[in-house]
Write a structure and sequence with these properties.
By secondary structure, the protein is of the alpha/beta class. The protein contains 25 helices and 22 strands.
């Protein structure tokens, strides 16, 4: 029986209210959902914070079958699935870290129609087990998240996205939704071509964010500048830094300055630490999180009032996505970009130093295959512990170059590279009744393990060395040493969760590594340098409106100046300066202040503009200087 348009509209809004708690859709969301419901190919370019994921999650609940979501990052898939399950929506993800048993359970739930959304990486589209199973699963439609990855000119080019075209040919009746938050016109055209969209519905929302006031500020002492901003910023915010060390050191500096509502977040934390920190920040209206770009994907916090870039982002796409995490509720918000010339020169050098030449690229990969004894066309099943010092000693290359290559291999799903802290894993190959055949020292320790860690003789078990140490009263370090010794004897398999690890996902293929993979790696590195050069121009330019530069980058023409960024403030006519003068007098009537304090309190007017007005007020005798930094009413 066909449902009437009125009843269908009512069902949409009931679903939105029941699962998401909203009464209305945001711009374009409803139209995109309708396009999918009626089986049309759809391309949606929606900036960060515009609610992209709802555009496929809601119609997935209304249509029969499973929505297949293709996503490039495992962390993003996990995050989305956890959020959906928290809303009582049945969703699953397939990844290389799942064993066959877990994958089979997921496939069965899809076949039975219980799961509504199945997240996969694009690499899985060529997996024979997946193709065999998906043929027995009714699909509602395909959603391609981060669709800019299909373009060679996108910021995160992933060749595996090319598999989508072939997969669609085998499923021509299934509609496809392509979603991206950051794409230039060149990239959008490539998405349409490579996904073979026929008469697609296209939804393109402007990148303009009128509620975000952007400041690009050349600063020598960034620590002090961040402190000055946070003294007056009483709401929730994010500070983006480049490295884990930066995050920890800036947090320590601010704690010493008695700012207790600040914490740090990066990929080196355990899953539990990350969840705790993220939950505290999510549920607060004034906490500030200092983070590397490991933080931000999939966050849905609408009351973030400011984003500070302690260091510039590597590309305009990254920068726009990160500042887009502020002011999602439409209220006035601020984005600060702090930089200096020396730092830009340093980043130029860092970028060059992390890109290996072909010989170095091959040396790193050859070492991996050699140290773990992987022969040509062989694919070992086990997970290997990765010793960075070992790779560095052998290759004589920097950690940055090695990490760059490992990340590339991970993104192409040649390996699964885990550089995050996690629980350790243990599997015992010795049963309780075999202990009397072992040396006494080994038998005693394995008996302790059997008593303390249940299930380790039947399958791989996740555990914490610290908890084990507390149970059996043996030092953490000694436990690790003994486990490694017993592993060498073949009694068990142990992966230390505090160290990096890799698992090979494709058989060794020297021909591909020397040709196709090297060419792809080289292309991605050139693209990275080009993106940084564009970002550098954006940072240093002091003539053009900051929002207008972003809009121009993403292909929006004939746009107006925002009127509120640091450049627009500087370019305003002197008539506006008188208004600023009145504001200065009003603030100084309450309390004397430095120029930094004034610039923050005055809705973040540019420091140059305030200084010009202070000089005028000093000359006219309305303001006096208490010392070389502090101003007061005369």
């Amino acid at each position: 029986m066909m449902i009437s348009p009125q009843d269908f509209k009512k069902l949409k809004y009931e679903t939105l209210k029941h699962f998401w708690g909203y009464s209305t859709f945001r711009d374009s969301q409803e139209e995109i959902i309708d396009s999918l419901i009626y089986g049309k190919d759809t391309l949606a370019l929606l900036p960060t914070g515009a609610g992209k994921s709802l555009c496929y999650q809601l119609p997935a609940l209304l249509k029969e079958g499973v929505c297949l979501v293709i996503s490039p990052l495992l962390a993003l898939m996990k995050d989305q699935v956890n959020q959906l399950k928290a809303r009582q929506i049945d969703a699953e993800y397939l990844s290389s870290e799942l064993d066959e048993f877990d994958a089979e359970l997921i496939y069965n739930r899809c076949k039975e129609g219980l799961t509504k959304l199945l997240y996969i990486s694009p690499e899985r589209l060529t997996n024979s087990q997946f193709l065999q199973n998906i043929a027995e699963i009714q699909m509602s439609f395909i959603a391609v998240d981060e669709a800019h990855c299909i373009s060679e000119w996108g910021q995160d080019f992933r060749p595996s996205y090319q598999h989508i075209k072939e997969f669609r040919k085998n499923n021509p009746e299934i509609a496809c939704l392509a979603l991206t938050a950051t794409a230039t016109p060149k990239v959008l055209d490539e998405i349409k071509t490579k996904l073979e969209f026929k008469n697609p519905e296209i939804f393109q929302k402007s990148f303009r964010r009128d509620n975000i006031k952007i400041f690009s500020e050349e600063v020598s002492d960034k620590y002090q500048r961040v402190f000055d901003i946070l003294k007056y910023a009483t709401k929730s915010g994010i500070i983006y830094v480049r490295t884990r060390k930066d995050a920890e050191q800036l947090c320590e500096f601010l704690h010493q300055k008695q700012l207790t509502n600040v914490d740090y977040f990066h990929a080196g934390l355990t899953a539990r630490e990350k969840n705790n920190k993220q939950n505290i920040w999510n549920n607060s209206d004034r906490n500030v999180l200092i983070s590397t770009n490991a933080f931000g994907m999939g966050i849905d916090k609408d009351n973030v009032r400011f984003v500070i870039h302690f260091s510039p982002s590597p590309s305009i796409e990254n920068y726009y996505q990160e500042i887009g995490r502020t002011g999602r509720d439409g209220k006035k918000s601020f984005a600060f970009l702090l930089w200096n010339q020396q730092e830009l020169l340093n980043f130029d050098q860092i970028l060059k130093n992390q890109i290996p030449n072909k010989a170095e690229f091959l040396k790193i990969i050859t070492y991996l295959y050699s140290v773990f004894q992987v022969a040509e066309h062989e694919l070992p099943e086990k997970v290997f512990q990765l010793n960075f010092n070992g790779i560095q000693n052998f290759t004589k290359l920097s950690k940055a170059k090695i990490t760059n290559v490992l990340t590339f291999l991970h993104n192409q799903e040649i390996i699964y590279f885990n550089d995050n802290k996690s629980l350790s894993s243990l599997e015992l190959f010795v049963k309780g009744d075999e202990l009397d055949q072992l040396p006494k020292k080994d038998a005693y320790f394995i008996e302790l393990l059997l008593r303390s860690i249940s299930g380790a003789t039947t399958h791989k078990v996740m555990f914490s060395e610290q908890q084990l140490s507390n149970k059996i009263s043996i030092d953490n370090h000694l436990i690790k040493e003994r486990l490694k010794e017993l592993q060498q004897k073949g009694y068990l398999e142990y992966i230390d969760g505090a160290l990096s690890s890799i698992k090979f996902l494709k058989p060794r293929n020297e021909r591909l590594i020397h040709s196709a993979y090297w060419k792809l790696f080289e292309h991605i590195q050139k693209n990275k340098i080009q993106k940084w050069e564009e970002m550098k121009f954006y940072i240093e330019d002091s003539q053009y409106c900051k929002m207008k530069l972003i809009l121009s980058y993403f292909g929006e023409k004939n746009t107006k100046n925002c009127g509120i960024c640091s450049v627009c403030e500087k370019n305003k006519q002197s008539i506006f300066g008188k208004n600023i003068g009145l504001e200065i007098i009003n603030l100084l009537s309450k309390k004397s202040a430095t120029i930094e304090e004034l610039s923050i309190q005055m809705t973040y007017h540019s420091k140059e503009n305030i200084l010009e007005n202070l000089i005028y007020l000093l000359d006219s005798g309305k303001v006096k200087m208490l010392n070389f930094k502090t101003y007061a009413l005369a």
